[in-house]
Specification:
- This protein has about 350 residues and is mainly α.
- Among the domains are: about 110 residues; about 70 residues.
- About 80% of the residues lie in helices and about 0% in strands.
- A two-stranded antiparallel ribbon has the order 1-2.
């Protein structure tokens, strides 16, 4: 089975035979049915959707219909498409439902391209129902346009005369969808909508309109070039900002390392008596931190006070510990204001 590829969506079935896909579809149908029996309808829905997709792609319409029956049962039980409950869905649920709709829409396109028109129409309608529930304006309009066009084409195939007013409306709506796609920076999609519109207008004989649409379509390519240029420029600016930020971080770390090395050098030159005082202060600091974790705040404060006394006993001409003293005094003040 070939990969089915669209603008920004990929349906990829790699390295699987039709038999393997059939087994997968059957397994999904079985799992979905079990979830319904257990009352886990939310879990059943995506499994049944996938089973239905695979069976449709394989051409197993009877199996797809079985999955559809189960799917409708699950959907009715959870009222996923009840508009009155639209706003009770969480944002995460809305996002997942929107993704399901887009999956349906793109599977529909794959089926339509393979001339599976009835199957495509069924899935387009499902996708439209989801988009409509979620108030996804652009997606709803796309699906509705395709549904109406397929239905009109089926009428013509059945021998009915083409309604020019209906098709003129299709062409105008296609232009509107193209403009919406431009606003969403979906330039290739926009050009396709314009092409659809141009083809319809040409078929209807509105050649005066076609010329203007060709110019608008050419301008879409210019807009695309400018947009991509803007995206690249913003990416370059972001990269430059990140590099500058990283350089500042590196500079700060370098300065801190220099300061640490200087401090270590000074420490190495200190008399043994001062080194012992600092070791004692560090030991008391470790104990105070443990006591804080045990909520023994009064004992910790007492140790911090002793540490301050030890630091103040060290001559400033040997090593200046004023900053450390200030930090500990601030910590004592915060502990007292918070717990006493």
């Amino acid at each position: 089975m070939k990969n089915l590829i669209y603008d920004n969506y990929y349906v990829i079935i790699m390295g699987k035979t039709d038999l393997e896909l059939e087994k997968e579809a059957d397994a999904l149908l079985k799992q979905g049915s079990e979830h319904i029996t257990e009352g886990n309808n939310d879990l059943a829905i995506p499994l049944l959707y996938k089973s239905k997709y695979l069976n449709l792609l394989l051409g197993y319409k009877a199996q797809a219909e079985k999955a559809e029956v189960k799917l409708q049962t699950a959907k009715k039980r959870v009222d996923r498409y009840d508009k009155s409950k639209r706003f009770s869905l969480s944002q995460d649920e809305k996002d997942k439902l929107a993704d399901e709709g887009r999956d349906l829409f793109n599977y529909s396109k794959s089926l339509q391209d393979r001339n599976r028109i009835d199957d495509a129409l069924m899935l387009y309608k499902e996708a439209y129902a989801i988009f409509d529930v979620l108030n996804l304006d652009y997606e709803s309009k796309q699906a509705y346009w395709l549904i109406r066009r397929i239905e009109e084409e089926k009428k013509i195939s059945a021998g009915l005369e083409k309604d020019k007013d209906v098709w003129k409306n299709f062409a105008e709506k296609a232009v509107d969808l193209g403009k919406l796609a431009v606003k969403r920076n979906e330039y290739n999609v926009a050009k396709q909508w314009y092409k659809d519109s141009i083809d319809i207008f040409k078929d209807l004989g509105y050649f005066d309109v076609v010329g203007g649409l060709y110019k608008e379509r050419e301008n879409i390519e210019n807009l695309k070039v400018e947009y991509l240029k803007s995206v690249r420029q913003k990416a370059q600016e972001r990269e430059l900002r990140e590099k500058k930020f990283q350089q500042r971080v590196d500079d700060v770390l370098t300065e801190k390392e220099k300061a640490r090395q200087i401090e270590l050098s000074k420490m190495a030159e200190l008399p043994l008596e001062i080194k012992e005082t600092l070791d004692k202060a560090q030991l008391l600091t470790d104990k105070a931190e443990k006591e804080l974790q045990m909520n023994k705040f009064q004992r910790a404060i007492g140790r911090y006070q002793i540490i301050i006394d030890l630091y103040r006993s060290v001559p400033k001409d040997k090593i200046d510990l004023s900053e450390k003293v200030s930090e500990i005094e601030q910590k004592i003040s915060e502990l007292k204001s918070k717990f006493f």
